[in-house]
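Ticket #4471: structure export looks truncated?
Reporter: QA, pipeline team
Priority: medium

Steps to reproduce: submit the single chain below to the structure queue and open the exported record.
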Amino acid sequence: MSYTQFPTSNSGSENKLTNSDSENKNNKNKIIYGLLILALIGSWAYIIYEKNKNKEEKILFVDRIQKDSIDRVALQLQFDMLSSKADSLTTNNQELQGSLAERASEINKLKASIASILKKKNATAAELATAQKQIAELNNKIEELYAEVETLKAQNKQLTASNEQLNEEKKKLNEEKDALNSDLDKTKKDKAHVEDVASTLHANNINITAINLKGSKEKETSKAKKADFFRISFDISENYITPSGKKALMVCVYYPDGSLSQSVGSFTDRQGNSKQYTNKMEIEYEQGRKMPVSFDWKPGNKFQTGLYKIEIYNNGFKIGEGAKKLDKSTFLGM
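Actual output as written to the record:
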């Protein structure tokens, strides 16, 4: 039995359906593959982006850490330099007073505040910024203090120079004053010496009389044997420089052999020699008036023949002298 196959319309439709399904399936697979590829590409892109982002953040973090570290070191160096300068100013100028002392106190407070911040291991950026601001303020205050100190030094230097000049002028004036005082003292001494010398009394009209005494009668004699005493008289000249008052007169009587008669005291003459005297008289002198003086002197023993000398002293000066000669008696006693 034979079968004859005849093409029918259903077979064509099935073939067409099969081809269409296959194409659809292929398209779906392509879409899926495309999506997977896109997802993979997106994943890798995201991973790459995240890696780059993390890398940038790490770089920024490292940069920030490095920047903070560099800022701290720079601030510390700047602070140390300023501290040294401030210490030098205050050490070399320990006697700061008034406004300078106040500036020094403000500088020390700023130093303490900055040092406190820089000592912190985990100081924040804000704290470091504060420290940086305070360092700038510290620098300004140090510069101001330095300027004032330099100004005061210049003024002190000028004052020192002025004082030195004044001291030189004062020294010169003192030297001139000393010279004037020396001249004045010398003048005073010279004047005193002149007045002293000028005030010395002067004796004139010196007269020595040998007296022979018989009872109450006195008779002048020139014979040694008959003489009982000497009457010595003289005048003190008027002197307008010598002040009124008691004046001492020393009289020295010398025997014919040149020896001094019995001494009653001594005085120092103007040559600085000690001199013995025979008699001392104190008179009440009146300034500017002539004054007669008279006294009697006995030798203690009998008079000797020969020349008797008399010297009168006042104020260390010899103010007069005289002499009297006594002769031998004749055979008849005359």
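Status: closed, not a bug. The export was complete when the record was re-opened. Leaving a note from the reviewer for reference: The first helix runs from residue 9 to 92.
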